[in-house]
């Protein structure tokens, strides 16, 4: 919300500069996003001028050379292109050195050869209109030349950009923020602008009737009527305030509805009464497929979840969100029906999401305004309709109340002094609490052990219990004034990680310890990711979870894999000259159930890592490090498994189309697939401009590894007897995996490690020689030659099961 300080100062004037005020509001919970400026600057260069003469420019048909008295003795020559400039006028003038609305500094110049020492201004050129209407402003002749223009017109304003939380819709109005500033700074607060209501009494309007068919969605609906309305532009002060607040002025009636909404926080809507068919309005659910063209000139198709305001000819507006074109106020309007209503907040939110339609009115209605606020807005609108349009009230006020009970009672909550101390850790004087709550609009009465506090209607949904009152006192008194304390009873607050969290942290720390950097990717992604990863139709990863109301197409599904985030970060780094990338992410991935009635079939926590570029930093002790590849990723995964004390196995698999088919494997835990490891397919890497070097990657279901990790780690004593170590060469068919060979030998030997692989004519076509470092050991004695011979014979029998044999 944009808050012009000049508007705030109508109701409270804190003795603080804008930056200090912003800080004070932020410290009390009203976040100020930034401080903006609206209008012009260098105000001493803007003055009132008197046009002494206006002669035709000798070399330009559309320009006039004017002599203007600006109050400093000698007239200034100004070249002006406005068609309505004439001698004898009182005008607004900017002199050289003025800072214009667009931030440009005005300089003396020549226009078609004639010197021009300033500018005669139109309203848009000082921020008083959205666009130039075609001529300069003509001011009151009683103004003296040289009078500072800022003393006559609101040409400059400071604006606070506020971030209002959803629980505080009362601060979506200027007076609501003024109340907060009053409580936060102690500055005086003027009476609310709805304190007086000039509208005639009565509960009927001639020729107008209201019917509410959905009372549960419309707690209160009010209308007032006006005749003899004259449509025209709003006064400059009103236009300036709307522009500073970010709203484009239209005409006096529409501007009144926007002005009142920004002031009170309560939306309202003006109908052309003569365009309301039958003079009747019905609040009802839309028909399935019913259509309405809204004020933004878009025809919208509705359904029964949308609430409409309709007349005898059909829908006229989407309730609480936006009006329709058919009954809008126009230049020929002479009778106005002013509607102010209260709506069900969740329904407003669903309606805007479903229609893709956001509005200032809907943003307020969706937050749950109080039914009492409708008459506050009606009172202010009545004052302005009479004052700015010359309107005459027609009848009284039709007020349809559907609230149960009809007159809701205000809740009274006991605020105990002892409870304040217990929650805040320090006492707050009862007088201080009373002063703060009274300033915020609460009713306060003394009680034996504290205060009886009556919650105002505009805070009914936000303050419902004693703890909420204590929060109000604490934030206004200042959280920074509270001492640092330790809770007396710390039972139940050990501040420790759960076993699951410790194991997850251990797995992540392993990767950090090996030089990888953790990233945090979005859970949302775009459907195009599936095509970039070469995932075919019908593949399991195509069963994605689609968002009903995505922020954009690029974030319209939940990610089915964590691979996309890693590739995005690697590509971003590579594009900036950082080709050596080692990163990991620990996060959630999502897949849809094959049955659309089931929401999520698979939502699990994944751990994934990506390495590309040099496998190690360069060193003066050796040459360049080899590139990171499949084995680099596999080594990282095995390090994670080792830290968790789980045993993984690997098996070639081509189920992942984004992996290189000859350099990838599935990861198994107790024969159950828990992930993959491999190199990214070259065509996939090309989509991310990473095809220059191999890209090693793995991803596993971390929770399954954690579930398999032992709760208690036990240790076995190392035997003191020496091992018998031998290097063996094993020849197996080329289709046999080295992992199978190692597993086979490990059934006999105590240690097995591959240190060389050879294929060639010496071992035969289709055969592979795998060199192993093997250690035999016994726990109770030193092995002799006969023991080793027997173990080797047993090893040969095991290899025969794989079609292998010892070489040599």
Describe, in plain words, how this protein is organized in 3D:
By secondary structure, the protein is of the alpha+beta class. Helices cover 24% and strands 27% of the residues. The protein folds into six domains: 2-39 and 158-185, Phenylalanyl-tRNA Synthetase, Chain B, domain 1, CATH 3.30.56; 43-154, Nucleic acid-binding proteins (OB fold (Dihydrolipoamide Acetyltransferase, E2P), Beta Barrel), CATH 2.40.50; 209-401, Phenylalanyl-trna Synthetase, Chain B, domain 3 (Phenylalanyl-tRNA Synthetase, Chain B, domain 3), CATH 3.50.40; 412-480, 2-Layer Sandwich (Phenylalanyl-tRNA Synthetase, Chain B, domain 1); 500-708, BirA Bifunctional Protein, domain 2 (2-Layer Sandwich); 724-806, Ferrodoxin-fold anticodon-binding domain (Alpha-Beta Plaits, 2-Layer Sandwich), CATH 3.30.70.380. Strands 25-29-30-34-33-32-31 form a seven-stranded mixed beta sheet, with helices on both faces. A five-stranded antiparallel beta sheet has the order 5-4-3-6-9, with no helix packed on it. Strands 11-14-17-18-19 form a five-stranded mixed beta sheet, with no helix packed on it.
